[in-house]
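Something for you to look into today, if you have time. Could you write out one complete protein record for me, on any chain you like? The space below this message is yours for that.
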Amino acid sequence: SIISKEPQVIIIASDSKKHSSVSDFWSRWSFIDAVKNKHIYAIDSDLLHRQTPRAIQGLEQLCKLINFAR
């Protein structure tokens, strides 16, 4: 499970309307480093799940978020 891996960063691909609820959902696991350090992010799922030129935008966002969390 994700909890047992103790991630440094959690990135969720989700509907843009649900971005604010991502942090709320993970807040119950405050012992995970990603939650403690507030490195929980959401990316618009359309940018990652659809094989279109916009996928490059999604990958750029993904790289920026990972780099920011370092």
User: Anything to note?
Assistant: The chain has five helices and two strands. The CA atoms of residues 49 and 55 lie 8 Å apart. Helices lie at 2-5, 19-26, 33-36, 45-49, 55-69. The two ends are 23 Å apart (CA to CA).
